[in-house]
Amino acid sequence: MPLSRRYKHLKRYQEITNVLLKHGLGHVLDQLRLTEFLSVPGKVFFKREPETKQVSIAERVRLALQELGPAFIKVGQILSTRPDLIPANYIKELAKLQDKVSTFDFELAKQQIEMELGQPPEELFTWFDPEPLAAASIGQVYQALLPGGEKVIVKVQRPDIEKIINIDLEIMYDIARFLEGRLSWAETYSLVEIVAEFDRTLHEELDYHAEGRNADTFRKNFAGVPDVYIPFVYWQYSTKKVLTLEYVAGVKLTDREELAHYGINPSAVARKVTQAVLKQILIDGFFHGDPHPGNLAALPDGRIIFMDFGMVGFLTEENKIKIGNLVLALTRKSTNAVMRSVLELGVVPRSADKNLLYRDIDVLRRKYYEIPLSQINLGEALNDIMGVAFKHHIRVPSEFSLMVKTLVTLEGVVEALDPDISIIKIAEPFSRKLFMERLSFQALSKTLWKNLREFGGNLSLLHKQISEVLALTTEGQLKINYYFPQADAILTRLNGMINRLAFSIVITGLVIGCAFLARKGVPLYGHYSLADVGFLLAGLTGFWFLISILRSGGL
Fold first, then answer.
1. pLDDT tens for residues 230-256?
2. What angle do CA 145, 151, 155 make, to 5 degrees?
């Protein structure tokens, strides 16, 4: 990376370095060779401090990310959903990252609203509470009343937050490129691609328009489901940096007394939440990425409310089918089926040992084999599979990792409401429905038509490529480059085989010649004929040939 780029963000680099040193992570700088990266001629970039070992490294990483601010907090939260990339103890620690920071001044919020909506809040709303309901790293949430009397919540983005996040993302890209060029594991995990994934996710959260569209999609998907309610988006009061949503007063799912006050059955709520999330994942292919108790509530009539649609997951039809197959494989407790599903879902490196992978999956199968289906913890089972993926360097789609995190979060919510409910048992009919839909005439026709179109496109491309190859051949410009790392070993062995074959032919010829001489009775000396000497020579040569084959492992 050019020095000019490091000078540009020098102050931020110093802040990051000092925070890492403060939390006893100086050895990480050394192991990742970042001391070399952070070296700037003529500058004292950082000075060593004694490293504390009072807490685990995973906890120190969490504390450092928390202190480094919004971009790093978000990255930590995203990493907490990727057990295929980092060890389980880090996952557990990063899951504790809280997206809560101090509030910013109301005057700044007013300026942001006026800049985005063209008028100050006192002119747009009949009432606007200056005290925020909540504060997060991206923005703050306020209560207000529209001129028509509708009660709403207004999310206002922090001033300059996008600029701050973009600087940190530039730094992450630079470090990722540096590491990829020097460390093999960084190249294997494609760190630049991972940062690009962070980049996309963070900018989606910075775009309140995207969150509003997510809410509208959920409303559409649950239009015919009486047990779920999605708040309405007031688009005339919303922009990229301001989002106005219907305020819905619900009962917290963790408040057992309040649920009992309204006569809401916790077990029924648990089942409704589970069915709603499974519908999102296995039927809609569009799911809430963070269904924790703060983003869920119940209406007095028992309906479930979903809130905060900044983090969502998308699943293609193909990935929905693969996930459905994995759930069915888990319910059937089939090692082969689970392994097929894992291999279909992830990018498996060539170096992966398939036999060892099968063994590790079979260990999991035996772990759950004796447990009744109703008692299997789906989130734990999926986390175990992700652990196997991490061990074998299998990269799985980020959407699958987010789905696992969603199901783990869901199980925590459901278990608090009704410990006897089994998510995997509720999921099985959804997976079967998905499987049967694949076998329907409509689905088969769609797949056939898609394959025919792809085949036609490939034929056209093949025709073009063949024409180009023929043209190059005619002009005498065709060059073929190949890389075959085992070629030398194979050629050596092939050469040895050819030599032995030639030698065996010579011996055979010698034996046949001796037999011919024996018939003619050609004498040599005394009782010994020329044929006897030939047979003796052929026998000794054949014996030596057999010994050489045995020594080389040829038999």
1. 999 999 999 999 999 999 989 998 888
2. 80
pTM score, whole prediction: 0.68
β 312-314/296-298 pair status: unpaired
| 113 closest CA partner among 144, 137, 135, 150 | 144
pLDDT of residue 325: 79
At residue 533, the pLDDT reads: 63
Residue percentage of the chain with pLDDT more than 70:
68
Q: Please indicate whether residue 290 is annotated as part of the active site.
A: yes
Q: Which residue do the tokens 């175990």 mark?
A: 384
Residues 95 and 66: beta-carbon distance below 8 Å: no
Query: In the structure encoding, which two tokens stand for residue 193, read together?
Result: 């691609």
DSSP string for 302-347: S-EEE---SSEEE--HHHHHHHHHHHHHHHHT-HHHHHHHHHHHSB
Q: Which of 290, 308, 360, 384 is catalytic?
A: 290
- A 10 A CB-CB count for 538 gives 19
User: How is residue 322 written in tokens?
Assistant: 């693969």
Residues 6+ apart with CB under 8 A from 538: 507, 510, 511, 514
Residue the block writes with tokens 């003619």: 520
